[in-house]
Design goal:
- By secondary structure, the chain is of the alpha+beta class.
- It has a domain at about 5-180: Beta-Lactamase (2-Layer Sandwich).
- The chain has helices at about 5-25, 75-80, 90-95, 110-115, 135, 180-210, 210-215, 215-230, 235-255, 265-280, 285-300, 305-325, 330-345, 355-360, 365-375, 385-395, 405-440, 445-454, and strands spanning about 30-35, 45-50, 60, 100, 125-130, 160-170.
- The chain has a 6-stranded antiparallel β-sheet, with helices on both faces.
- A hairpin with a 6-residue loop joins strand 2 and strand 3.
- The longest helix is centred in the C-terminal third of the chain and has 34 residues, at about 405-440.
- The protein is globular, with a radius of gyration of 25 Å.
- The relative contact order is 0.09.
């Protein structure tokens, strides 16, 4: 099995992931996806590239007129690390299956222009898209001839994955750091692209194997079990991405609601107070204090539903403060300030449905406002297609006037469709497996086979 797609399908999948990243990350302005061919040649070829306009709504698509990675692309031997030629971030991502972040373009060790022309480029992040060897090669990955590096070491020898694509996102200067929220978001979305590519491939492969499924029941059952087990497990990632999109919607809503309110900086004010108290302790809090500062700073970038947010604060922040109270003597004034700041932090979770703020916000009808609040602040614990249907329906209403409303709606529709495909694959596969394992196998009906091939 190899990854083969129609050009239009592959380009559309790449455009959707670029659009998702550019819209979700306000400091990102350009995105490119490169396809990495099969080993040992591993030809890196630019598939799609887009630049978001200043209005953050329109994206211009198209490949640069001149680039070594435009079709037909560059083979591994042309971009791998070799003495006497510039180092490329592409080689790092492909060989090590790890991301590369150029947070300072002036000292980027893998900027070809900087090394050759002395000209710094944009700051950027490159993320490999990985697919398990077992999924891609149906368990025959050990028979593949893999490429070697300059030390004659076989690439990916000890890895369960192969690199099928590279996502490159350009950012505004001084807006990105290694392993920050933005790069972690790109990493999560790279997994979504890998899942989507694998899903397209599985649909095509399963459709072509329709006849074989009827003729060779046991062998087909084993192939389905091996190839789909890990793919179906990606449903958890889909749910995580849906919750991430809900967080984006909550941030957009709260930004609109709090435009003229003195509550818009509640999170930051509470965290700054808590961090300041820890800084004043002159290192007495040790590792626990440093951990608390990191967690409190992390909370600023989270957008959780109130119930889930309260649990997060109690487990990640408040419990550690209680531990500090038992270990270090705080005076009454400090203790009161800490408790007050923790309460203020918890209150920040509820600003999006604050009755006074909602009463003053008259840009949307009351009935729509009530249902909208109930939906985006609901603490969902599992995939709920009825809930997603209602949410995407409401997002069609232009009176909400959210900055990235249409993009969020499309993202949720895309994730819902992907989850439904996974569910159909799981159900259909279980039918076949159950019949074979029980020894009462009958040839699948055309309806069952069509579900498997969806």
């Amino acid at each position: 099995m190899i990854l083969t797609f129609d050009k239009e399908i592959l380009e559309q999948a790449c455009k959707e992931i670029i659009e998702t990243i550019l819209v979700c990350l306000p400091n990102a302005f350009k995105g490119t996806v490169y396809r990495i061919g099969l080993p040992p040649q591993m030809i890196a070829q630019r598939v799609s590239s887009g630049i978001i306009e200043n209005d953050r709504k329109t994206i211009s698509w198209g490949l640069p007129q001149r680039s070594d990675y435009n079709p037909p692309g560059k083979s591994w031997n042309e971009y791998m690390d070799k003495p006497g030629r510039p180092l490329e971030a592409m080689a790092w991502c492909v060989e090590r299956q790890r991301s590369w972040t150029a947070e300072d373009s002036r000292i980027d060790a893998r900027s070809v222009r900087l090394q050759v022309e002395g000209i710094s480029e944009d700051v950027y992040h490159m993320e490999p898209v990985l697919i398990r060897k077992e999924d891609l090669f149906f368990g025959n990955g050990s028979n593949i001839e893999y490429a070697k590096n300059i030390q004659n070491e076989t690439l990916w020898k000890d890895s369960d994955y192969v690199v099928v694509a590279i996502i490159k996102i350009h950012f505004l200067h001084n807006t990105i750091k290694i392993a920050d929220f933005q790069t972690r978001t790109i990493k999560k979305l790279s997994r979504a692209l890998g899942t989507e590519l694998m899903s397209y491939q599985l649909k095509k492969q399963l459709y072509e194997d329709k006849k074989q499924l009827a003729e060779d029941k046991l062998n087909s059952c084993n192939i389905l079990a091996d190839s789909l087990r890990n793919t179906i497990s990606k449903t958890g990632l889909i749910f995580s991405l849906i919750k991430l999109e809900l967080g984006v919607l909550r941030k957009q809503w709260e930004t609109l609601l709090l435009e003229l309110s003195d509550k818009k900086d509640m999170k930051c004010e509470a965290v700054e107070t808590l961090n300041h108290i820890l800084d004043q302790m002159d290192g007495k809090c040790g590792k626990l204090g440093k951990n608390l500062i990191n967690l409190q700073n992390k909370f600023i970038n989270l957008s959780l539903p109130p119930e889930g947010g309260l649990n997060w604060i109690r487990m990640q922040i408040e419990n550690k403060w209680n531990q500090l109270f038992n270990e270090i003597p705080f005076d009454d004034e400090q203790t009161g300030e800490i408790r007050s700041s923790l309460d203020y932090l918890k209150s920040s979770l509820f600003v999006g449905r604050d009755p006074d703020l909602l009463a003053r916000y008259s840009r949307i009808p009351e009935s729509l406002k009530t249902e909208w609040i109930d939906l985006i602040y609901k603490d969902i614990q599992s995939l709920d297609f009825q809930y997603l249907n209602r949410l995407t329906y409401i997002l069609e209403n232009p009176s909400l006037n959210l900055p990235y409303q249409e993009k969020s709606r499309k993202s949720l529709l895309y994730l819902k469709a992907l989850a439904e495909i996974m569910g159909q694959l799981e159900n259909s596969t279980n039918i076949v497996l159950r019949e074979v394992l029980n020894g009462d196998y009958v040839d699948p009906s055309p309806n069952v086979l069509n579900k498997i091939a969806v």
